[in-house]
Amino acid sequence: MGNRxxxxxxxxxxxxxxxxxxxxxxxxxxxxxxxxxxxxxxxxDLSGIGEIATQxxxxxxxxxxxxxxxLFGISPRELRHGTRQRYSRDLESGTAMxxxxxxxxxx
Length: 107
Description:
Layout: H1 3-7, H2 11-17, H3 24-41, H4 49-55, H5 61-72, H6 76-93, H7 99-106
Helix pairs in contact: 3-4
């Protein structure tokens, strides 16, 4: 069965649907970067940045970092470092357990 039958839309129409998003590939890349960002913001996730990049489809860590900074305006390392510092301060003030609740409300 071809893609047209599975999706019920022609390739040209699919590309038109995603034109405002920068195209299908750009949309998918942004979704992968957003998923990687959620992992980097999770202080309990101890995976390395390169490992997270690979798990989200980026085989080149430099390319991942470049695209990440381009989309979010911060490097993956800076984001992770800031998140961990914030989490440490929250632990000290007793509000660390509220973080996941606030993140859920923000979605």
